[in-house]
Write a structure and sequence with these properties.
The complex is a heterodimer of chains A (about 525) and B (about 350).
Chain A: E1 9-12, E2 15-30, E3 33-44, E4 48-52, H1 59-66, E5 74-79, E6 82-84, H2 89-94, E7 97-100, H3 112-117, H4 130-144, H5 159-172, E8 177-181, H6 189-204, E9 208-213, H7 216-222, E10 225-230, E11 233-239, H8 245-253, E12 271-281, E13 287-297, E14 301-305, H9 312-320, E15 327-332, E16 335-336, H10 342-347, E17 350-353, H11 357-361, H12 368-373, E18 383-384, E19 387-388, H13 390-403, H14 420-432, E20 438-442, H15 450-465, E21 469-473, H16 477-483, E22 486-491, E23 494-500, H17 508-515
Helix pairs in contact in A: 8-17, 14-15
Chain B: E1 6-11, H1 17-41, H2 46-58, H3 61-86, H4 94-109, H5 117-146, H6 150-170, H7 204-221, H8 223-233, H9 235-240, H10 245-272, H11 283-293, H12 298-322, H13 328-348, E2 349-354
Helix pairs in contact in B: 1-13, 2-3, 2-12, 3-7, 3-10, 3-11, 3-12, 4-5, 4-6, 4-10, 4-11, 5-6, 5-10, 7-8, 7-10, 7-12, 8-10, 11-12, 11-13, 12-13
The chains are: A alpha/beta (about 525), B mainly alpha (about 350).
Chain lengths: ~525, ~350
């Protein structure tokens, strides 16, 4: 199949399948990470195909290449049998390919109609032809059931309606292939079923849909065909009839996660960190934490597994003091830290290693020494009254740089100039120098090389052995398996189950099902 | 792939130290070179013009003293804006804060309180500082608490304050003897003493120098200075890391507005001795350029303010001697800022050729 002009048609059973898009041997690297390793992907006419995979599997990257947002390193793209170069979304739209992103690209102060025609040449030259546009828009709305008021301003619309506007925008440009990137992440269940209705109308019309998702249930409901990506490689392709959620979960999570019972029987202390019935909204004002309860004991690492976007970030933010929950409590020892400021939480002895080290964990444009004390520069001996003592700070910083082996030209260097691993070491050094009773570490090794990763794992285990309670949030299952004493799976803001590894082995298939929301253990 | 060579802007790590020094100097020379083109267009010899400018502002004792008089408010507004910008409080309102300070100082001065100068003058300074600070903290509070755009609020509040001053001068405070829209003179004991006899150099320059020292001390030696740097570099991260960014912004808006208010006090108590509607020919706006030209650095701001004093003062002499419109000074100031802004891009980015 790799040579010559690709055949445009073939039969699947009795059905004539016509290839609209074929992507061959697509490769894309970002710095050191390979996002797509020679991926082959076909879209047939009139089908709904799902791209299934965890975060970072390369789904979105692949589709952004097709939509002209990324340039591929190598590989070929064929549309309707002809080889094409897609260098911009404009090229993609001209070829009939449209994409709706997770983050919408609408002008909030303009109306729906204005947003839809924005960027298109007007048939009347300089004059804006709103009447014809309105007619065409009404047609699309009626035909596909995409109910939205053409004259409403975007800021007045709900998230679901905004998504409809994005879809209308694509349809207005006569696209044949619609790519939807995690479209249900922002929708309520009712809105999801509305969306699915619309997608089925597309299919009937002979249009094709690419549905990017990590939710098994939805994928099984809506797709004709499912392509599973893992670490930038296609690990499987199934027609819906041929497969089931169990198999998909396995293909998605993979088997390379090596299971071992925790070797040493650790001694756990009391549960010093407790979360009780925590409910919180996300930035889109949807319920992201739906009453979560768990606890972490001294000397224990509780790993939080799950695909990103299932409430982990909100959990982290509440614990770190930068998100106010709507209800529930978070106790460190006997103190409730909910509604405390970040400063108060730091002072209570919470060590915080945030997911976003570039925008939260560090201030990149100040010197290294300043970042090493930024959480406690106001304490003695670094400050006295209103004055700050940079001599003491620098002495302390020199010490930490040596102790944690942070590679920097000097402690006066601007933090931005350091590599990712060393940036994370700054955070680690700052946090651990305070001997925290409880540590929250979110994606602590994401994007780091193996050396830095091992170092950070080592340090976290050291802290655990010293008796710290650690909450580890990670998308990297290997990391979770390597470090955690118990594994808690989150899905859609709920805890699907907690696996206590001192009592049982981890069943990877079960873990995958829980991560994809297809299995829930009874109350824990 | 296209054969056109592509260039891209790449974020630099730390700009080298020599670059930080060379850049403002280069900006000054490039600005003068571009200004020379304008001079050539009106058929004037640019070398002669610049010679006149520098001799006219530095060449004689009198010229030098006038340059110091001009530098006095410029240093204050420059420091005021620089401290604000360091915390990313975009204070475009030094002009209005200057007027607020001038208005308050006049109010306090024309009360003719029976106080000795040693008490009256410090009180004048305090009143002017408070007025500038209050006018500024409105915008600072709105920004910190409600994310209201500070560029817009501070800029528009300039006009409000200037019209308030004009309204008062045309109404209640109109001088009953001359009927001009200017206040009566302030109390003699509220006048700033002259520092050099037979010149206009007054005690305000001491305030300016103290402001420079204060800024150096604030940024380098205080906790607030640390918080200003952190908040200005990344407010979101600073908040996450436990810094009270709201408090920082509000404090900075108070300090910045207060120092700008001092410039108004100096003009009333040291130069005019009464309030006129044109008490500032845009010192507050020049303060923005000075802060940028000085790279928000204490010594840089001082030097930039002196450069501006030289240009403004020298342009007057140049204009008289060579019949060149006085506005050439504004042109030079404006071009210096534009060149500086363009060069700031290279401060943060470098050009890389990509294959």
């Amino acid at each position: 199949m790799a040579q010559g002009k690709p055949c445009a048609k073939f039969y699947y059973g009795e059905v004539l399948m016509e290839k609209i898009v074929e992507m061959r041997n697509i490769r894309k690297t970002f710095l050191n990470t390979v996002a797509n390793k020679n991926v082959n992907f076909v879209i047939y006419k009139g089908e709904i195909v799902s791209l299934l995979g965890e975060n970072g599997a390369g789904k979105t990257t692949l589709m952004k290449i097709l939509y002209g947002l990324y340039t591929k390193d190598s590989g070929e793209i064929f549309v309707n049998g002809k080889k094409v170069e897609i260098n911009s979304p404009k090229d993609a739209i001209a070829l009939g390919i449209g994409m709706v992103h997770q983050h919408f690209t609408l002008v909030r102060t303009l109306t729906v109609l204005e947003n839809v025609i924005l960027g298109l040449p007007s048939p009347k030259g300089f004059e804006l032809d709103l009447d014809d546009a309105r007619k065409k828009l009404k047609n699309i709305i009626d035909k596909y059931g995409l109910t939205v008021d053409p004259d409403a301003k975007i800021w007045q619309l709900s998230v679901g309606e905004r998504q409809r506007v994005e879809i209308i925008k694509a349809l207005y440009r006569n696209i044949q292939v619609l790519i939807l990137d995690e479209p249900t992440a922002v929708l309520t269940p009712q809105e999801v079923s509305e969306l699915f209705k619309t997608l089925r109308i597309f299919k009937k019309e002979g249009k094709s849909v690419v549905f990017i998702s990590h939710k098994l249930e939805e994928v099984m409901e809506i797709s004709d065909r499912i392509v599973i990506l893992r670490n930038g490689v296609v690990t499987g392709e199934r027609r819906k009839e041929e497969t089931n959620e169990k198999e998909l979960a396995r293909l998605m999570v993979g088997r390379e996660v090596i299971e071992a019972l925790r070797k040493e029987k650790a001694q756990f202390g009391s549960a010093i960190f407790k979360v009780r019935n925590l409910k919180a909204l996300n930035d889109k004002e949807l319920l992201a934490l739906k009453g979560v309860s768990f606890e972490v004991r001294e000397g224990e690492i509780l790993g939080v597994a799950g695909v990103a976007g299932n409430g982990q970030k909100e959990l982290e933010e509440v614990i770190c003091g930068v998100r106010k929950p709507i209800s529930g409590d978070v106790f460190l020892e006997d103190k409730n830290i909910v509604n405390k400021t970040p400063k108060e939480i730091i002072n209570l002895g919470v060590g915080r290693i945030p997911e976003d080290r570039m925008e939260s964990g560090l201030i990149l444009d100040i010197p290294v020494f300043a970042n090493l004390v930024v959480e406690f520069y106001d304490k003695t001996p670094f400050s006295r009254g209103m004055l700050i003592n940079y001599q003491e700070i620098k002495k302390f910083a020199e010490q930490l740089v040596k102790e944690f082996n942070i590679k920097t030209s000097s402690i006066d260097a601007i933090t931005r100039t350091l590599s990712g691993g060393n940036l994370q070491k700054i955070i680690l050094a700052r946090v651990l120098s305070r001997n925290p009773k409880f540590i929250i570490a979110s994606q602590p090794t994401r994007g780091l090389d193996v050396g830095a990763m091992e170092y950070i794992h080592e340090k976290l285990l050291e802290e655990k052995n010293k008796g710290a309670a650690i909450l580890l949030i990670s998308e990297d299952l290997n990391e979770i398996m390597h470090l955690s004493d118990r594994i808690m799976v989150m899905y859609e803001g709920e805890i699907m189950g907690i696996i206590d590894r001192s009592k049982e082995n981890v069943d990877i298939e079960e873990l995958g099902l829980m991560m994809a929301g297809a299995k829930r253990r009874v109350t824990v | 792939m296209s054969l056109m060579p592509k260039f891209k802007l790449e974020k630099r790590g730390v700009p080298p130290v020599w670059f930080q020094i060379v850049m403002p100097v280069a900006a000054v020379f490039i600005a003068l070179a571009i200004s020379a083109i304008f001079l050539l267009i009106i058929k004037k010899n640019p070398f002669e013009a610049f010679y006149n400018m520098f001799v006219g502002s530095l060449g004689t004792k009198f010229a030098l003293s006038e340059t110091i008089v001009k530098a006095t408010p410029l240093i204050l507004t420059g420091v005021a804006v620089a401290i604000a910008f360091k915390a990313k409080y975009w204070n475009i309102g030094a002009e209005g804060q200057l007027y607020a300070g001038a208005l308050a100082a006049t109010w306090f001065g024309i009360m003719n309180l029976p106080l000795p100068a040693i008490i009256y003058i410090p009180l004048e300074i305090t009143v002017g500082f408070i007025a500038g600070a209050l006018w500024s903290v409105i915008a600072g509070y709105l920004k910190a608490k409600m994310q209201v755009d500070d560029v817009v609020t501070t800029l528009l509040m300039n006009f409000i304050m200037i019209y308030i001053v004009q309204g008062i001068l045309n109404g209640p405070w109109r001088n009953p003897h001359t009927m001009y829209p200017s206040s009566v003179p302030i109390a003699k004991n509220a006048d700033f003493p002259k520092l050099i006899p037979n010149t206009r150099v007054h005690a305000g320059i001491i305030l300016s120098i103290l402001a420079v020292i204060f800024m150096y001390f604030l940024i380098r030696k205080t906790k607030l200075g640390f918080e200003i740097n952190a908040t200005g570099s990344n407010p979101k991260a600073a908040h996450f890391l436990g810094i009270d960014t709201i408090k920082t912004i509000i404090l900075v808006s108070i300090i910045s507005g207060g120092i700008a208010g001092l410039a108004g006090v100096g003009e009333v108590c040291g130069v005019q001795y009464h309030l006129i509607s044109g008490i500032s020919p845009g010192y507050g706006y020049s303060g923005i350029v000075i802060a940028m030209l000085g790279g928000l650095n204490t010594i840089g701001v001082l030097l930039a303010a002196l450069y501006f004093a030289i240009v403004i003062n020298g342009a007057q002499i140049m204009s008289v001697n060579m019949h060149i419109p006085i506005y050439i000074s504004d042109v030079i100031q404006g071009i210096t800022l534009l060149v500086m802004l363009a060069m700031l891009l290279f401060f943060e980015y470098r050009i890389r050729r990509v294959k």
